[in-house]
Write a structure and sequence with these properties.
By secondary structure, the protein is α/β, with parallel strands linked by helices. The chain has a single domain, classed as Aldolase class I (TIM Barrel). It has 6 helices and 10 strands; from the N terminus they run E-H-E-H-E-H-E-H-E-E-E-H-E-E-E-H. The protein is globular and about 40 Å long. Bound molecules: the ligand O=C(O)c1ccccc1N[C@@H]1O[C@H](COP(=O)(O)O)[C@@H](O)[C@H]1O. Residues 9-10, 29, 31, 33, 36, 38, 61, 63, 83, 85, 106, 123, 125-126, 129-132, 152-155, 173-177 line the site of ligand LGQLAAA5. It comes from Streptomyces subrutilus. Pathway: Amino-acid biosynthesis; L-tryptophan biosynthesis; L-tryptophan from chorismate: step 3/5. Residues 6-195 form the N-(5'phosphoribosyl) anthranilate isomerase (PRAI) domain.
Length: 205
């Protein structure tokens, strides 16, 4: 199995960003969706994103927000990718594509293949994103989509490897499973998650 793409989401402190990047995350996420314990504003995200090297993707996370608001927060923060957790249609995706962003479509629905709405990456998530609750990715009824897709929803250092092997996902995304309390990241769990996703034993650092 090749190394999976690993995104650590819901980061709010410079230290957590440095830990995730230093441990080998391929992407880091900043939540702009209102009502989350992880929500940051554009100015805070801009400072955090400025710490991230060019080879690591910065992602703004949105849920059901008007496209103008998504464009504004994305431009003000400088994040390179947009992750959409709503029921946006192809025109919405097209407008953001024209603005030059990488597009991540997040959904709990069955999707046959990545790219149907013009997205670059598909993210299959639980119905209640960011809740830490898993879904039935391990069941016989789940048919993985074609193309590049990320698995999220209730992943932890203890189950991420099994999840990757069971589903064949191209990558994984996590928030709750690397927190010591809701909205507060644990550097140790971030490192353990990345090591586990890669299939390497965790070493104390
Ligand atoms: O993290 C949030 O609070 C959030 C809020 C609104 C939309 C998406 C959100 N996070 C996404 O949810 C999954 C992580 O889920 P879990 O906590 O690991 O179960 C991931 O895709 C985040 O980007």
């Amino acid at each position: 199995m090749t190394e999976p793409f690993i995104k650590i989401c819901g980061l709010r402190t410079a230290h957590d960003v440095d830990v995730a990047v230093g441990a080998g995350a391929h992407a880091v996420g900043f939540v702009f969706a209102p009502g989350s314990p992880r929500t940051v504003d554009a100015a805070a995200a801009r400072e955090l994103a400025a710490r991230v090297p060019a080879g690591v993707l910065t992602v703004g996370v949105y849920r059901g927000q008007p496209v103008g608001e998504v464009r504004r927060l994305t431009e003000e923060s400088g994040v390179r990718a947009v992750q959409l957790h709503g029921d946006e249609g192809p025109e919405y995706y097209e407008e953001l594509r024209a603005a030059g962003r990488t597009l991540v479509r997040a959904t709990a629905a069955h999707v046959a293949r990545c790219g149907e709405l013009g997205e670059d990456l598909l993210l299959l998530d639980a119905p209640d994103p960011g809740s830490g609750k898993p879904w039935n990715w391990g069941s016989a009824e789940f048919t993985p989509p074609e193309g590049r897709w990320l698995l999220a929803g209730g992943l932890t250092p203890a189950n991420v490897r099994e999840a990757l092997e069971a589903t064949g996902a191209w990558g994984v995304d996590v928030s709750s499973g690397v927190e010591r309390e809701r909205g507060v990241k644990s550097p140790e769990l971030i490192r353990a998650f990345i090591d586990a996703a890669r299939g390497t034993p965790t070493t104390p650092r």
